[in-house]
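2024-03-11 09:14:02 DEBUG pipeline.ingest accepted 1 chain
2024-03-11 09:14:02 DEBUG pipeline.ingest length=381
2024-03-11 09:14:03 DEBUG pipeline.predict start
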Amino acid sequence: MLRTKYQQEIDVLFQIHPICALLGPRQVGKTTLAKQYAENYQPKNVFLFDLENPSDLVQFENPMLILPPLLKKENLIIIDEIQRLPNIFPVLRFLVDNHPGKILILGSASRELIKQSSESLAGRIGYIEITPFSYQEVENNEKLWLQGGFPRSFLTDSIDLSFIWRENYIRTFLEQDIPNLGFNIPAQQIYKFWMMLCHYHGQLFNASEISKSLGVTDHMVKKYIDILSGTFMIRVLHPWFENISKRQIKTSKIYFRDSGILHALLGIKTIQQLNTYPRLGSFWEGFALEEILRKYKAKQEECFFWRTQAGAELDLLIHKEGKKIGFEFKYSDKPKLTPSMRIALEDLGLDHLYVIHPIKNHFLLAHNVTAVGLHTFIHEF
């Protein structure tokens, strides 16, 4: 599948920076995208290094010997799995400051986990987050919700094979990917933590409650959260505070970023099992929330939720281009205007509030409040 929007974003960033970083979870299609970009690169002077390949990794023991001759104006260097060699970033800074050429780096960890990239390459690097397939890229939206957007999970025609792939992905992630990032944590321990998070999906996160259950400190729980968010497995949605008299919730909410991974952890194989799951509403909320954030290309610092201790709440608040846009997610074919929505609209000064539901239509609920189907919103709004 050609993901042309990402290729266009790479072109834009290379007009501004000598280095472009594609970041995203393992098996999301970063390598395929880079190879597709290389095929169309003119002139075709492309040099690809995969740091999971032992021979390539050995060559990078002396990067100042291998890279300078390749850094020419017309050349493109691609370095895959960059998180395996975080000490390379100061070298890259020196090279791009003294040589022409473009460098495309691929990583399976966020720039928060690869701190050297943001610190060493400030002003020289642009970031693109590669996500699993989205509503904008596929037609079978029910399949996308059930199996998630990882290419090898979504593209298979077999529900059983998709489920097996995700189970293996989870095992590999715990047993190999986390240790490769330098974290010495027993796989079984973080698996238990991950399973506990399933029950917090779409809910306020209680670190103390989990720390007691796991028998670890609150600090260790925070470390686990940082690892899973830094590897794009979960999203931490922070609360928004308004300068108003009402007492507001200050605890963050947790979401699984890929619905297929969440379903695999809970043993949900079929759409029938999903439709009868007790917490179906929160599962829909998490799935729809991710799609909205992708549509808006919302950064972490642009998206929040809001809740008061009196019970008024808003599932998602996006600050974008000087506007405040609110979202409520309702798994209902007839969503209605609620008192909570009116309070959020007034107290937060929203420019518009959208009530996202699963049916393909849209209609006004009130002034500046529109109920709209997720598919309709993604493709028509």
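2024-03-11 09:14:41 DEBUG pipeline.report The domain at 4-129 is CATH 3.40.50.300 (Rossmann fold).
2024-03-11 09:14:41 DEBUG pipeline.predict end
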